[in-house]
Design brief:
Length: 235
């Protein structure tokens, strides 16, 4: 399977406290790869390391032959990697359209991209001139994803995109992840719910104490759900 991104034995710290320990992960092209683990296991830090928001002290992260872990954060988006952090982080004072424009500008994308993204989230099309702080939680999450997609990423990093949403919104976000998967976007998805993992993942990596304990195909997890308990002690 062709590789979209390779994390090779990275070590990351907050001050002197080590949080990631020789963490390795392969993202295959077109897969939805779920990171699953307890609170504080290091899932968000892994995404931040990819985006250059946490320094990789040793080890490396490689995309298309480029060692991106050597680049400053503002360079990394240019390599077609987009990040939707936990808690959305929109520009609340700006409208839906303006938030999308910020995404488009990051990699000089235009009307065609915007249309493609709005087709994925038709609900946003009806609200282009609405201030984003007045959107519902689920709509804000859609906008955060839509803005990330405006850079036309080939690697998308999603940190618990359905957290705190009502079931109908969760279903729409999952549909969008599935549609992106079908379009060939490779996704790393941090997800706390096993049912969601089983529904949309291609593979799952269990993260514990800043290490990947095991990686498996979702069909293996479906066949042996008790593996969740074995690797993370929950579920
Ligand atoms: N800015 C920071 N400064 C110091 N320590 C931090 C910082 N951010 C995270 N940590 C610590 O690093 C560890 C890993 O945190 P991280 O957010 O990566 O975990 P997580 O697996 O995403 O957890 P959750 O499921 O709760 O979001 C935790 O012990 C956390 O307290």
């Amino acid at each position: 399977m062709e590789q979209a991104l390779a994390i090779q034995s990275i070590n990351c710290f907050y001050d002197e406290v080590q949080v990631l320990h020789d963490l390795s992960l392969d993202l295959s092209r077109g897969e939805v790869h779920c990171l699953f683990g307890r609170n504080g296991a290091g899932k968000t830090t892994t995404l931040k390391a990819i985006m250059g928001l946490v320094r990789v002290r040793s080890g490396k992260i490689v995309k298309d032959g480029v060692e991106i872990s050597k680049l400053p954060a503002h360079e990394i988006a240019k390599h077609a990697i987009a990040y939707v952090p936990q808690g959305r982080r929109l520009f609340g004072e700006l409208t839906v359209a303006e938030n999308l424009q910020i995404g488009l500008l990051a990699r000089n994308k235009g009307e065609e991209t915007r249309e493609r993204v709005l087709n994925l989230f038709p609900l946003l099309r009806e609200r282009l001139n609405q201030r984003s702080s007045t959107l519902s939680g689920g709509e804000q999450q859609m906008l955060a994803m839509a803005r990330a997609l405006c850079v036309e990423p080939d690697v998308l990093l999603l940190d618990e995109p359905t957290e705190g949403l009502m079931p109908s919104m969760i279903a729409r976000i999952r549909e969008a992840v599935t549609a992106l998967h079908e379009q060939g976007v490779s996704t790393i998805l941090v997800e706390q719910r096993v049912d969601a993992v089983l529904e949309i993942a291609s593979r799952v990596s269990f993260v514990e104490n800043g290490r990947v304990k095991a990686t498996m195909g979702v069909e293996d997890l479906r066949a042996e759900p008790e593996l969740v308990r074995k690797y993370v002690g929950v579920g």
